[in-house]
Amino acid sequence: MVDRREFLRISGHLAGTAMLTGTALRAHAAADPSYLSATALVAQFRRGQLSPVDVLDAQIRRIETLNDKVNCITVKHYEDARAAAHDAAARYRRGNARPLEGLTVAVKDEYAVNGWRTTMGSTLLKDVPPAQDDGPIAARLRAAGAIFHIQTTVPEFYVWMTTATRLWGVTRNPWNLAYTPGGSSGGSGAALAAGFTTLALGSDMGGSIRVPASQCGLYGFKPPFGRIPTSEVPYETDGPMARTFDDMNLLTDVMVGPHPLVHSSVRPRLRYPARYESVSGWKVAYDPMPHMTALDPTVTRAMAQAIAALRQAGVTVDTVDVGFNADDLDTYMAGLMSTSMGGMMTEAMKHPEQLMPYTRAVFEKMQGKAGPEALVHTEELLNEYQRRVQETVFLKGYRALLTPTLGTPLVPAEHGMQPDIDSAKIGDQQVTGLKFALTWVWNMLGLYPVVSVPAGLGPGHMPIGMQIIANTLDDLTAFQLASAYSRAASPLYVGNRLPDFRNEQV
Fold first, then answer.
1. CA 278 to CA 299: how far, in whole Å?
2. pTM greater than 0.70
3. How far is residue 389's CA from residue 341's CA, in Å, rounded to a whole number?
4. Which residues are the active-site residues?
5. Domain presence at residue 504
6. Which residue range or ranges hold the Amidase domain (predicted)?
7. CA dist., res. 203 & res. 148, Å (int)
8. Is 336 within the bounds of a domain?
9. Residue 265 lies in a domain
């Protein structure tokens, strides 16, 4: 990952085929190895029924056919990927395959990969020197046999929940091109939804894994701070994204663990088992977070269906109100910008004319608000929210907390591109800014593990997501519940529940 100090170091380089649609796309995808799960692919690779080269070639064909519609890739790294796929095929033949052998992983334009540029979605960084080494996660995944074939789009400096920049253009959602795949890991989410990759990397400092997971019908994990070696900013973390729970679980198990160069990384290493026990008899709380945002009626219905699936698995679900409030977002943002994120903000604001409207609006709003006092206020809010979560949920005997991920899935792809285009639709109302997201509290409360799971499809064929939160550092409880949910709920990416690249405003 390129951290904020790295941004300050490189800031001296700042710069003054035929289309298928609808039913045909779904039928094509159903027979395409591009959409096979990682766990299924590994099994077929081991049996010699399929080769990593076959899957990579199929995904490249999809990219070349469909990415003009989606626009989720910054740079393609096909030559190196093909060499890695041939090496992976040879390892399977020799019987010495590694955990992620031959699986493609889309890399968010934030991770440091040897020889790759990290632009952070900004024209200010389009000519920065490439990385000289793999960062901790890239090195760990490469050693596990992963294949890096594409770099994926992000909003400028990762500060927005849609993915549109002057440098790379507008990234669109394969489920419905009129809407965003989310942000800031929107390119990774779109790549998974489009069948361009088997696994993907994201990062999260306000919902940047969970929002795209919700928008793209994926499983995404915001680990507790330190579980994955990321940075020293306590509000952010790297994390995995995938189309199935088992794939997310597999990728997580490779990503986690202490790293000698990342002081915050937690010891000892946690192992994520391939299978989890039943959750029958559990008590779980559900907070619709009414003081954060209104919920689109389709989100309310999707949450009811997701809760019903858990009840069928033997889980008792009670409604609670922790008391999270949307007005506290500014306090969190001021605290975030009082970390090394603030150094990036200061440097970027030397070139305000080159910033995206949403970037400039966020940074201008934070001018004069960051600093020691802001950190004090954020810490006070954190302590208050911690007390409420414990007293309302975990001290009452609940094993986990459920919340929606977003108030609405209907966020236009161009949201934030212009100063007057920053609204989303909730029911019959238009809401502005980013307060429709129910994610940022778990970045401030950074030690809570959060899994975002798909809760169903809403209007416009757009996915809806649900967050599963376990107690601090209790990842395996969140994963156990998410695993049970994934087996009880109706899955996406099967039958007619596939992206069809429609373009319809609801």
1. 27
2. yes
3. 27
4. 108, 184, 208
5. no
6. 54-475
7. 17
8. yes
9. yes
